[in-house]
Structure formats: structure tokens, C-alpha cells
Design a protein that fits this description.
Oligomer: single chain
Structural class: mainly alpha
Radius of gyration: 22 Å
Helix content: over 70%
Strand order of the largest sheet: 1-2
Strand content: under 5%
Number of helices: 19
Length: 424
């Protein structure tokens, strides 16, 4: 008799549903939150523990495999070009959706609950004091070890690229170092798979805390905003990313099926980091060479946040509509360009979506106080935009691989995943 075994995706989905049920039953219960929170925090901490070693070792191995600064520069330029292009498209889609559906029109602000956003305001003021030159200089770490301790991903990526070039440049003498980091990468991917066995419990706890804290009632006054955001994100993934996938000969639904576990996990935890190692591994299986997947995906986590900028565009117009402020087409184009720049310059900043919006508001004259009305459901919306970010970065690795002429999908068109065949 064949032994029954639930796939990881099924386990995560069950954890998600049970978490929603428990969160709803114990809505407003601080005791339930205090019991569940440590289980969720443990999962996040386990993943954060392995992200830096995986990014460091994978990029060093990838860059050393490419071999020279010219090839790395070419790969980086193509990646950045794609990131900027998709960011502008995502912002444009968000602005168009907000203009069509007008989620902020007719809302009575007196009936909405305001949330304290003072921490975001303080962070935004700190960021506004930095010039573009300061932001670029911050990418170069004065102490790589400190950057790793603080999880400063852009600084870690920069150091890894430079170190990888150094390993490649010294030839045979660099082979032992390369083998060391290859070993580190393999070991950390094994540890990732080990930690993922705990994922269903982590998801159950994190979604349980979210629902018990915010409930579903918080969505009712801002239901039109939530529907607009989620509807636009679904459109963006299926139509825009679907079109891009079709260009490289891939069906977007088959890609979604391949990464279904990671999408469930990212959605439930509101954290892209929880799926970074597995996304890199799966895109390699899907046809992206290891050096491209290892370079593009971690870099995309800082520069290619399609879901985040799409949400920010809708949120900006939502606040304008709520206050009865009519933004001209030129103001909206300005908003688009400012969002594109600020979303890149503030990667890695805590509460980045709100900080980016606050910085953008000050540029086009929107009231920052308007964000206090939507802060209460931000966690619910964050779940969706995190999932979109994951899809966008997964596809980016395959698109750049195709652009480089190195896209090599499996010959039989199938991948074996946890005993389930995922067609690609």
C-alpha cells in the first residue's frame, strides 16, 4: 500500500487556512497573539540566519564562474535595464487602475481609523537628508562583516561581486576558495530544505497573529482600496508578466505552478527572504544558468519590487482622491518618475513602502497624514505585494538568461518537484 504524503505546498496551505480560522476565533486576543508570535518569529529568524551566507556564497561562485569584469558588467546592465523597465510598467499599471476605479473617491475620513505612522515619518526624514551620492556610496561597505551582520543586502551584493572577480582573476590559486564557497552554498541549501519542514507551523502562527490583530473588519471601510490593489496585482501578474513570459516561450501559469509553495510562503509571511534560496534553486532548474539566477534574484530583491511600486502608485492616488486633490497627468508622470527613483534608493529600509510613499508625497504636495488611514490594513496588502515581488524576480532570472542567450529549459518540458510534476 502506497504511503500517503502531503506535499509541502499542501502543508503550507493547511497551515494558512488553520491560521486564518484561529486568528478569526481569537480576534483581539493579546494572549493568543503572545502564544503564536514566538512560533512565527522563530521561522523568520531561521530563514534570516541562512539568507546572508547563501547570497554571499552564491554570488561569489556565480561571478567567479563568469570570470571577468566585462561579462559581469554586461549581466548587471541587462538586469538593471529590465528592472527599471518593469518598475515603470508596474507604476503605470497602478496609476491607470487607480484612475479607473477611483478607490479613494467618496470616502468619509471621519469614519476611518487612523494609525500612528510617526516611526515611518522619522525614517523618511532621515532618508530625505541623504543625497543620491550618499545612497550610492552606501552600497560600498567600509566593513563587509558589519554589512553581513546588519543584513545590508546591497552592500553584501557589492562585496560578493568584487570578491568573486578577485577569485576569478587569480586563476588556480583561487580554486580552493571557490570550492569553499561552493561547499558553503550546497550546505546552506541543504539547511534551507531542513528549515522548510517547519514552514507550515511558521505560516500558521504568522497568519494567526495577523488575523487576530487586524481582523477582517479593518478591511470593510477600505474594501475598495483592497480590491483595487489585489485586482490590479492579479492583472499585472497574469497579463503583463504573462506577456513577458510568453516572449521567452514560457507559460506564466506553469511558472506559478512551479513556485506555488514559495508564493504561499511569501504571501503568508509577508517576507520575500523566506523564499530567496528556493527561488534561486528553482529558477536554475527552470532553465536559468546558476550564475544568472544567483546574481539576478538577490539583486532584484533590492531593485525589482513590482508588487511594491504598483501598490505605492495606487496608494498615492488613493490619498489624493480621499482629500479631493486632482493630480494632473504631468503630476502623475512626476509621481511615476519619483516613485521609480525612491523605490530603488531606499531598498532595505524598514517599512520601505511607507517610507517611499512619504518621500514621494513631499515631492508632489500630498498630505502625509493620509497614510495614517491605510496603515491599519497595510499588513494585509503587504501579503499580496510580497507574492507579486517573488513572481517578478523569478521571471526576471529567466528573462535575463534568455537575453544573454543562455536560457535552457528542461528538454522534456517537466520538472519533478516534491513528487509532483510541474510543467514548464
Amino acid at each position: 500500500m502506497k504511503k500517503f504524503k502531503l506535499s509541502l505546498a499542501s502543508q503550507i496551505f493547511i497551515g494558512l487556512i488553520l491560521g486564518i480560522i484561529i486568528g478569526g476565533i481569537f480576534y483581539g486576543s493579546e494572549t493568543a497573539q503572545s502564544i503564536l508570535q514566538p512560533f512565527g518569529d522563530l521561522f523568520i529568524r531561521l530563514i534570516k540566519m541562512i539568507v546572508v551566507p547563501i547570497v554571499l556564497s552564491s554570488i561569489i561562485v556565480a561571478v567567479a564562474g563568469v570570470g571577468d569584469i566585462k561579462s559581469v558588467g554586461k549581466l548587471g546592465l541587462k538586469s538593471l535595464t529590465y528592472f527599471i523597465g518593469m518598475t515603470l510598467v508596474a507604476i503605470a499599471v497602478g496609476l491607470i487602475a487607480a484612475n479607473i476605479f477611483q478607490p479613494g473617491t467618496g470616502l468619509n475620513m471621519n469614519q476611518l481609523e487612523q494609525t500612528d505612522i510617526s516611526n515611518y515619518v522619522d525614517t523618511s526624514e532621515e532618508q530625505e537628508g541623504k543625497s543620491i551620492a550618499d545612497t550610492l556610496l552606501h552600497i560600498v561597505p567600509t566593513n563587509p562583516v558589519q554589512a553581513m551582520v546588519e543584513g545590508d543586502m546591497l552592500a553584501i551584493i557589492f562585496f560578493s561581486v568584487v570578491f568573486g572577480l578577485g577569485v576569478a582573476a587569480i586563476g588556480e590559486r583561487g580554486k580552493p576558495v571557490l570550492r569553499l564557497f561552493e561547499g558553503v552554498a550546497h550546505a546552506m541549501f541543504y539547511v534551507t530544505n531542513l528549515f522548510m519542514k517547519y514552514a507550515p507551523i511558521g505560516v500558521f502562527a504568522l497568519i494567526g497573529v495577523t488575523i487576530s490583530k487586524y481582523g477582517f473588519t479593518s478591511l470593510i471601510p477600505l474594501g475598495k482600496l483592497a480590491l483595487t490593489v489585489y485586482g490590479t496585482m492579479i492583472f499585472f501578474v497574469i497579463v503583463i508578466l504573462g506577456l513577458m513570459a510568453k516572449i521567452i516561450g514560457l507559460n506564466i501559469f506553469k511558472l506559478l505552478k512551479l513556485i506555488k509553495e514559495e508564493l504561499l510562503l511569501a504571501f503568508s509571511t509577508s517576507s520575500s527572504e523566506t523564499v530567496l534560496p528556493r527561488i534561486m534553486d528553482k529558477m536554475e532548474q527552470a532553465g536559468s544558468p546558476k550564475h544568472i539566477a544567483s546574481f539576478v534574484i538577490p539583486t532584484g530583491y533590492s531593485f525589482n519590487l513590482d508588487g511594491s511600486v504598483l501598490y505605492q502608485a495606487i496608494a498615492a492616488l488613493f490619498v489624493a482622491q480621499m482629500y479631493g486633490i486632482d493630480l494632473s497627468i504631468w503630476q502623475q508622470i512626476t509621481l511615476m518618475l519619483v516613485l521609480m527613483i525612491t523605490s530603488k534608493g531606499m531598498a532595505g529600509v524598514p517599512g520601505v513602502s511607507f517610507v517611499v510613499l512619504l518621500a514621494t508625497f513631499s515631492t508632489i504636495g500630498l498630505p502625509a497624514a493620509g497614510l495614517a488611514f491605510i496603515a491599519g490594513i497595510d499588513r494585509i496588502l503587504d501579503m499580496g505585494r510580497t507574492a507579486v515581488n517573488v513572481v517578478g524576480n523569478s521571471l526576471a532570472a529567466l528573462v535575463v538568461a534568455k537575453w544573454e542567450g543562455q536560457y535552457n529549459p528542461p528538454a522534456d518540458g517537466a520538472l519533478e518537484e516534491d513528487g509532483v510534476t510541474a510543467q514548464v
